[in-house]
Design goal:
By secondary structure, this protein is mainly α. The protein has 18 helices and 2 strands.
Amino acid sequence: MPARAICLTILMFSLLFSSVSQAAQPEQIEWDLSEIFADEAAWESEFERLSGELEKLSSYQGTLGKSAAKLQQARDDISNFSKALVKLYVYASMRSDEDLRNAENLERLNKARGLYARFGQSVSWFDPELLTVGSKKVEKFIRQNKGLEKHAFDLRDILRQEAHTLGLEAEGVLANSGEVLSGSNTAYSLLANAAIPWPEMEIDGETVRLDASAYTKHRANPDREVRKAVFEKYWQEWNRFEAPLGQLLDTHVKGHVFLARSRKYDNALSYATSGSNIPTAVYEKLVEQVNRNLPSFHRYLKLRQRMLGLPDMHYYDIYPETVSLDREFGLDEARQMMLTSLAPFGDEYLDLLRKGFAGNWMHVYPQ
């Protein structure tokens, strides 16, 4: 599935299911991860199996240019290992998401991340070696062997990035840096979702814990004083962690700069867009168009201000509805709206989505 399609689906889920009424609880409100692994013991067994197969992936080094069959065998096994590893990681990540304070779940997620790093190191030789085989020979292999057709895009994409692919030793070093470079993301996630003691406040006679989900909901409160208080209380709590958050951001940015320089890109933007083969001009044009159309956005804000009858506009005034709609959407209706909106993606995509709806694949409410 294309990355943009996955992102769009996730966005649609978040928008639609954030409006689901909690008054009428659906039968299925939490995901059932047993469809991925029956239990933690099954996960551990698969983890051990994959850990033992890493050495096999390294054994293909030096064989890629020998024949089309050898190239296919290496690519098939690497691809199959990668799929199994994704399944392992998804289970650990989703189990951890159920409660980020659970030490066992976090340990399992860290083991999956470690295996990912070791996998990257075990196959770090592949791209440099394929480049030595050369595009002419690779294309010949693809023509000779139908089994390589499913790998053709990936093989050509590796060849496309020849100028930014390093030698064997350097690629191994970069592969080993993966866990370290992802540390800022992990620390931020734990801080934002498990460590910050979110404040409570009374809203419409109810005691509300102002975490990210509650903030998203109550910043749209029709009462301006309420949403102002929500805004201030929520961001005051973030402000208490300004120093560590700033350091995490600084480390994150430096990680991008490190990778860009290591791979000989002009800057971090070139590195970020290269993987998807997007010219930096596309990004720059997007920024240019946003800036060019800011006057229209400012007109919209003034119109919103008049419709809400406000003397001035603040950040917390851009979220409340400008018209009244006393309506809640049930889970079944939200599902149907999503299927309708994603119809242009085609039947194959929709059938997979229906399969997901039919199973216990969703965590309907924030946890």
